[in-house]
Amino acid sequence: MEAVLVRLKTETMEKPSFSDGAVLEEGGALMKDGEELRGAEGGQVDRQTPRKTSSCRSSRKSFRLDYRLEEEVTKSCQTKNGRWTNPWSTWRFPSWSMLLRFFLLDKNNSNIPSVQDLDHELPVIKPYFVQNPDLLDPDPGLRVTWLGHATVLVEMDGLNILTDPIFSQRASPVQFVGPKRYRGPPCTVEQLPRIDAVVISHSHYDHLDVGSVASLNARFGGELRWFVPLGLMDWLMKMGCENVMELDWWEENCVPGHDDITFVCTPSQHWSKRTPLDDNKTLWGSWSILGPDHRFFFAGDTGYCPAFQEIGRRFGPFDLAAIPIGAYMPRDVLSGQHVDPQQAVQIHQDLQARQSVAIHWGTFALANEFYLEPPVLLREALEQKGLKPGSFFTLHHGESRLIVSQDSGVFL
Ligand SMILES: [Zn+2]
């Protein structure tokens, strides 16, 4: 077993200053006070509905890992004006001319076909917990269900964990304009099993969705713990979430009553934005979830950077990693913030993941590659590196897979 993690209460750390690059402008603003709140499926959400707990458990209090390991890892960086930056030479942000070319001239090859073709190529399956809720009894292993884009349900070591939930039709501040999903969600928030924890990677609309947060909070209230990178707690509290844990990179915490499962906010190479002026005001990150029997890694949204080797050295091997494979073309514009399938396989290796599941593809057409290209290039990259196709797999929307830990002594 790995080294015992010494838990120490931490103070807010001073961050070194780095200068930032250009930033991408995007319209839209956060929900205004008094605005009617809509759930992920468009239904009205009653702000008073969430089950109340005895005390407010939102907290900046956190713990950090053993001092001896701290020297070896890359810390988060903030500029003097309070904006976060990426501390690696692999980070680049497109110039204004590149962005203009991308938005006005570059050909979009996504070619999303008719619904009939989509139903054939990318079928949406009702998850097992909708078809047969009796199967919810704990299995020997880690079960992953892909719910589209970067949303996965992970059942491991007695906890049900949801990543970057988006059940809405659009990744947008409003539901009448903005990127629309071409594959619907396989289930509603109401059909989900009990959710104990949600991890959020960053503030972009395809990862932090107002309607989904409202619906999850209406259903689970304070029984659900939200794990977010630094700066996002206020947003969630304004949404009425009362059980929020906000963490810096390498800080860790747990779900109350389950302190044998450690949630660590780990780095990723990305950026954040929800409103015209809030570029990089909130941190982004990946999540390493370390249980007594299983280890799961959620990459969120990321470009390739050296952080994954650090994470692999410290927390690997992982039983399962969820790694993005889509929204990567054109490379000169998007390579800083989105990996391509080949780089996704490199992350899989850096993390020492035994298996990985592909996310961030097949749901929203966010970039210019053909919509079915990511899994094809993924298979090619695995073959080139001599890895088995099953070591980094794709799932249908709504499909589940049971991952059995090599240490558990249980074989399928
Ligand atoms: Zn994204």
List keywords for this structure.
412 residues; alpha/beta; Metallo-beta-lactamase, Chain A; nine-stranded mixed sheet; seven-stranded mixed sheet; disordered N terminus; disordered C terminus; binds zinc ion; Metallo-B-lactamas; zinc ion binding; phospholipid metabolism; phospholipid degradation; N-acyl-phosphatidylethanolamine-hydrolyzing phospholipase D
Q: Which residue ranges are poorly predicted, with pLDDT under 50 across at least 5 consecutive positions?
A: 1-36, 46-56, 408-412
Summed over residues and divided by their number, the pLDDT gives a mean of 84
Largest sheet, order of strands side by side?
Answer: 1-2-11-12-13-14-15-16-17
Classified by CATH, the class is Alpha Beta
Rg estimate, integer Å: 20 Å
Strand content: 15-25%
Structural class: alpha/beta
Largest sheet: 9 strands, mixed
- Specify the overall morphology: globular
Tally of distinct domains: 1
N-to-C series of helices and strands: EEHEEHHHEEEEHEHEEEEEHEHHEHEE
What is CATH's topology name?
Metallo-beta-lactamase, Chain A
Protein name: N-acyl-phosphatidylethanolamine-hydrolyzing phospholipase D
Main location: membrane
GO cellular component, one term: early endosome membrane
GO molecular function, one term: N-acylphosphatidylethanolamine-specific phospholipase D activity
